[in-house]
Amino acid sequence: MTHMHRRDFLRSAGTVAGGTAAAAATGSAAAQEGGGGAQPDYGGWFSDVSNFSSTTDYRGQDEVTVEVGVEGNGDYWAFGPPAIHVDAGTTVVWEWTGEGNAHNVVAETDDYSSGSAVAEAGTTFEHTFEEAGISKYYCDPHLSVGMKGAVVVGDDYPSMEAGASTPVNPEHMGVPFQPHYVGIATFLAISSTIAFTFYLLKYGESSHTKGGSN
Fold it and tell me: Which whole-number Å values give the CA distances from 214 to 84, 192, 194, 207, in the listed order?
């Protein structure tokens, strides 16, 4: 029977754990990145938004539509899609679905607003984005439950460093599940490695070996 010495095991375990973590970080960044280019840095804006998983790339279009009142955050309290990337000069049209009671659209910086919250399906509000950057907005009646969105404009916007990922709220597991399963697998793999390493260091390499010396 072939036995692996503890020092060899530790080197192998470190390599496996490091590789798994690196792969997870790469996968997470790829999942969040919307159509190529650097991943926008939303600064935690979407940490409590259940239907956010990536930035939808609408560059090349003069006008795009975002639905107001799609399923998310415990009811129809979400924008769909919540994060979009457009060219400067693009007009974004928000269209109400009629679900989730009354909604409105309010810029975080107060640059634009649809006014009082309304519930009627087919209601629209539009705004043309001229300046590059990230414009964050929300629904005032449902801000506390995470009804928020963002428009990334042009190519000059705050971006995250390679390998970084947007913080994930555990409540978002399964909505959808894909953006989170890599992180769960990584956590389990690293935890198992640490537990196994501790066992070897404490009890030796086999049931017939005492201590931990080679």
Answer: 58, 23, 20, 15
DSSP 213: -
Per-domain residue ranges of the chain? 1-36+161-214, 40-159
Judged by average pLDDT, the poorest of 7-16, 38-47, 96-105, 186-195 is 7-16
What dotted CATH number matches 40-159?
2.60.40.420
Confidence of residue 192 (pLDDT cuts 50, 70, 90): confident
Q: pTM above 0.70?
A: no
Q: Cβ contacts of residue 125 below 8 Å, gap of 6+?
A: 93, 94, 105, 114
What is the mean predicted confidence (pLDDT) over 22-47? 63
Cβ–Cβ < 8 Å for 61, 85: no
